[in-house]
Input
Amino acid sequence: MADRDWLIAAIINSGDNMIAGKLRNTLEDYLAMFAAILLFDGQINIASEAFKRATSSIQTSVYQLHLFSVNNGYYPLSYVLKLTYDSLV
Output
């Protein structure tokens, strides 16, 4: 469940002008890696290589992440601000 929730949060936060917006390509590569793993033999080698590539390209200047607890879920400030902006526009 934690992995699923993490993936959902990562996808939500990879929108334009959001905290993980610059990492959208990395997230797409991550999802494509699992699609490739399911299609071909040698899954261990594919996963190992993709993991090395993904972790070497991730760099961020984020040092703090503000979370809000709403309806038994945790949401980052960037998501709350995006929802607020969308409702005002």
